[in-house]
Amino acid sequence: MRLLTTVAALRCYLTKCGSKNKPKFPEGLVLDEITSWYQTAVGLVPTMGSLHQGHLSLIKRARQENSTVIVSIFINPLQFAPNEDYDRYPRTLEQDRQLCELAGVDAIFAPNPEEMGIPPKSIQESQVTQVIPPSAMITGLCGRSRLGHFQGVATIVTKLLNLVQPDRAYFGQKDGQQLAIIKRLVADLNLPVDIVACPIVREPSGLALSSRNQYLTAQEKEQATVLYRGLQQAEAAFKAGVRDSSQLIAVVEQEVARVNTVFVEYIELVEPTTLMSLEKIAEEGMIAIAARLGSTRLIDNTILRDRQPIIAIDGPAGAGKSTVARRVAAELSLVYLDTGAMYRAVTWLVLQQNIAIDDECAIAELANQCKIELTPSNDLQSPVRVWVNDIDVTQAIRTIEVTSQVSAIAAQSAVRQALVKQQQSWGKKGGLVAEGRDIGTHVFPDAEVKIFLTASVSERARRRQQDFKKQGQPEVSLEQLERDITERDWKDSTRTVSPLQKAADAIEVPTDGLSVAEIAAQIINSYQQQLTQR
């Protein structure tokens, strides 16, 4: 692991790691087919140091999804007001370095303010060029008492993203306002980075992990748990049917009032992405709280969603995802969102228009301009009919030609961005079953039920051969199918964009020797258990 303290060293490191991270290619893979498969993705975890398990959860996620993981440690003067704790903020670089090394971090970028071109002053006093998020997002919640804070955050995050140019950057949900602002910043400035939101990590008591927790005495740490208890009470009320803002806030206030040493700064209900105040939750809301114990300021939040659960089914090619997902959706009367068919539809259109598979610019144009529709069908084998530009391609997208090229198309960033945006829009109300290779990790990371189906290569080849026979396709030998499946597994798991992975909270279901009915029963049982816990 490298410790880098200058911009010049960081740029040198990124240049070198970009050229050395090309993986070994499977035997027999033609070179001109793998230009999109170099696993050179860079993940950035921005921090202010004093690392704890919350930070380590971000690093772990980044380690799973990228070939290079960089942790930045920079205590940003611009986000501290003159009367705040910049000078006494914990500085534990050596301890942080050891934690990062154990967590598999490739490099730490730990510049001083001068190296970042930032004078050790607050944002109000600084002459540096500033990035100013929308006023409505930075004047509420923490923005009321921390004037200039989010301008300082946005300015330094933008600098870090420009310096590292990561594929993904990881932020915790605990700083819900910050997360929403950074997502908006990236969208508004068209920055080519995926902002990955990671769940809040808590101590066994429920207290959200924070570097500032070390300011608390043992007694204060115990008292601080009332913040989470208040949020839990709001969750319970929400599950009981309460949707009104004033009622939900009152529930939190009543619980927090039990500890008279906690000074509440605010308790508010806002829309999680825009941060606009809500009077009533229609789809989802975030209850956020800020409070002080002595001189220590703490924040916490919880997301409340009014939707039916989502079942996300992931797994490698040929594991039976589509068949099982159709069965589960039918038995639970849920919508079957055939995401794989969407990628197949784009692939079919690419082939129809004789566009080269590696012509990513032309394919990006196509994916963002074509009209894909999924309509219900009474046929259990094809419960969704697929239309592209008003052409029914339900059967056409299942040919060997499309199957052999869809993985390459699906790996292209522009294609995935266009289709994932549609999928997430359809998922807002929940009540659906979706299957693919990154549904639980990328498309619906907050899905209530996550399943990862697996099966041996030989079993998947046997199933694929049977499918081809049923579809009247030309016969392909098991040996060839096993080679094709092995190659596709490698491509799917090493691609830069949303690689095939099991979500950390997914239930793995090995399917060798199990019937579709048996597999579906396991998933339905998990779904019903989730409903009883709501």
Automatic annotation (TrEMBL):
Q: What is its main location?
A: cytoplasm
Q: What InterPro entries does UniProt report for this protein, alphabetically?
A: Cyt_trans-like (IPR004821), Cytidylate_kin (IPR003136), Cytidylate_kinase_dom (IPR011994), P-loop_NTPase (IPR027417), Pantoate_ligase (IPR003721), Pantoate_ligase/cytidylate_kin (IPR024894), Pantoate_ligase_C (IPR042176), Rossmann-like_a/b/a_fold (IPR014729)
**Region entry Pantoate--beta-alanine ligase, spans:** 1-302
| One GO location term (cellular component) | cytosol
- Which residue ranges does the record annotate as region Cytidylate kinase? 303-534
Reaction equation(s) it catalyzes: (R)-pantoate + beta-alanine + ATP = (R)-pantothenate + AMP + diphosphate + H(+); dCMP + ATP = dCDP + ADP; CMP + ATP = CDP + ADP
* Binding-site positions, (R)-pantoate: Q79, Q178
* Single GO MF descriptor: dCMP kinase activity
Q: Does the keyword Metal-binding apply?
A: no
| Domain Cytidylate kinase, residue spans | 311-528
Output the GO biological process annotations, alphabetical, semicolon-separated.
nucleobase-containing small molecule interconversion; pantothenate biosynthetic process; pyrimidine nucleotide metabolic process
| Database matches in Pfam families | Cytidylate_kin, Pantoate_ligase
- Enzyme Commission designation: 6.3.2.1, 2.7.4.25
What keywords appear on the UniProt entry?
ATP-binding, Cytoplasm, Kinase, Ligase, Multifunctional enzyme, Nucleotide-binding, Pantothenate biosynthesis, Transferase
Localization: Cytoplasm
Q: Which residues bind beta-alanine?
A: Q79
Residues annotated to bind ATP: 48-55, 172-175, 201, 209-212
Which pathway features in its UniProt record? Cofactor biosynthesis; (R)-pantothenate biosynthesis; (R)-pantothenate from (R)-pantoate and beta-alanine: step 1/1
User: Is Ligase included in the keywords of this UniProt record?
Assistant: yes
Q: Where are the catalytic residues?
A: H55 (proton donor)
Reported function: Catalyzes the transfer of a phosphate group from ATP to either CMP or dCMP to form CDP or dCDP and ADP, respectively.
Q: Which family does it belong to?
A: Belongs to the cytidylate kinase family. Type 1 subfamily.
This one is known as Bifunctional pantoate ligase/cytidylate kinase
